Amino acid sequence: MSQDQSPTLVPFTIDLTFEEARRRAEVVAALGPDWDPVAALRSENEAYALLYSGLDAEQQRTYDRLVAAGVLPDEDPDRAAAH
Length: 83
Description:
The chain is mostly helical. The chain has a domain at 37-74. It is built from three helices and no strands. The protein is elongated and about 80 Å long. Pfam families: DUF6400. InterPro entries: DUF6400.
């Protein structure tokens, strides 16, 4: 390339929608045919309930304050923290 020529740029494009769909398909394939999302969610809910069970009074007050502040999700099945 001579000094008076500017470099030629080659356009580069990637379809992120296609790549995301491919990535998700790979994740589901890796989970295998025996993966049960309903059972996984049920187990997660059971673990969450167990984690916050048996709190003493001070721990319960702290838990309640964290839920009220949106730091922790409440006990609603569709729960999600606000932050």
